[in-house]
């Protein structure tokens, strides 16, 4: 008997979309990561760097994705680049919006400083240039990746090791002992 799994999509923004894409592309249960810009509605209608994550909720939960997101970008920093890098979770419907708000509230206790990440409704997505898609996995050992993405992967291996796709990392030439 063949069963089909329904995939879900969530939008995440907070830092450079190359970094965010590299982090979420390294997790199991992720079908696709689309890198680009997301716009919400109302005061946040302008596009901000973000990713769309298409995932299998039977393998990795929305809660795990949000917790990973909060811990792999500066979710407590209201720095000067927040217009470009909005700290956000973009929900695709009202049910997902309410789930994300509840998960975000539960995760706040993990941080010493207030979390500035907000939940917004998804409105629109613009993809990045083709040559910049899958930035980390096309050359994972370039200096930018080593400086900014490898530390995030080190954190993932320490905190969420059972969700990290170590096979994908090693197949791409990433030495797990070096990150």
What is the secondary structure topology, with strand pairs?
Elements: E1 8-13, H1 17-24, E2 30-39, E3 48-55, H2 62-71, E4 88-91, H3 94-107, E5 118-121, E6 124-127, H4 135-138, H5 143-159, H6 166-171
Parallel strand pairs: 4-5
Antiparallel strand pairs: 1-3, 1-4, 2-3, 2-6
Report on the architecture of this protein.
This protein has six helices and six strands, in the order βαββαβαββααα. The protein has 179 residues and is an alpha+beta fold. The protein is globular. It holds the Pfam family PMSR. It comes from Citrobacter portucalensis. Its EC number is 1.8.4.11.
User: In terms of structural class, how would the helical and strand content be classed?
Assistant: alpha+beta
Supply the CATH class: Alpha Beta
Strand order of the largest sheet: 5-4-1-3-2-6
Radius of gyration: 16 Å
Tags for this model:
179 residues; alpha+beta; Peptide Methionine Sulfoxide Reductase, Chain A; six-stranded mixed β-sheet; 6 helices; 33% helix; peptide-methionine (S)-S-oxide reductase; EC 1.8.4.11; peptide-methionine (S)-S-oxide reductase activity; Met_Sox_Rdtase_MsrA_dom
